[in-house]
Design goal:
single chain, 242 residues, alpha+beta, Structural Genomics Hypothetical 15.5 Kd Protein In mrcA-pckA Intergenic Region, Chain A, Alpha-Beta Plaits, Pseudouridine synthase, 3 domains, 9-stranded mixed β-sheet, 4-stranded antiparallel β-sheet, 7 helices, 17 strands, 28% strand
Amino acid sequence: MTEDAVRLNKYIAATGFCSRREADRLVAARRVTVNGGPAGIGTTVAPGDEVRVDGQPLKARAARPGKRRHVYIALNKPVGITCTTESSVKGNIVDFVGHEQRIFPIGRLDKDSEGLILMTSNGDIVNEILRAENGHEKEYLVAVNKPVTDEFLRGMARGVPVHGQMTLPCRTSRIAKFGFRIVLRQGLNRQIRLMSAAFGYRVTQLRRVRIDNVRLGALKPGQWRNLTPEELRGLLPQFDNW
């Protein structure tokens, strides 16, 4: 291993294609090649090497000169990953992403849910966004175990007692016989599951697809990407120290 070489899973994760853990799965499934040859779990990558996943080349990010900048990413969190920085928790989100910088989740998405969550190395912006959390729209697609009725949608939109308080009014719409869309401006623990349960519904799948102007888009489960400057400004216009 040369001085500039890095482990293959770290290289793949650094491109934003997926987490280190998912990269190991891809390698084990023989979907990764290095310089045209099949890669193994212990393979290392040096400058100039060509890495491909399913035949498509990956490109390492160019290093920025000078001071290391903060990281702001959007992750498609898979079911089973826990939004905690506690390294003792198996399947914690920090280890799952395996970023070279120390990053934190902004807010939470429960273990049984999937979809968009934001992460950053900037503790200041975490606090700022969480303080302003009720001002940020969060959009979810939800599957339930019974047909969605107009009465159910109206009741969810009006507000439901959860954790000793009434949830804020929200927007709901039917998207399928057993599915609906809901847009919240607050983030109580397991809010949508508890709201649904109040009407006798059980959530079978829950996916967050948007936080304000940041959309999940084409990100596959386990993949992440850097936020754009426009997305950052949309999330917190008054915060300038990116």
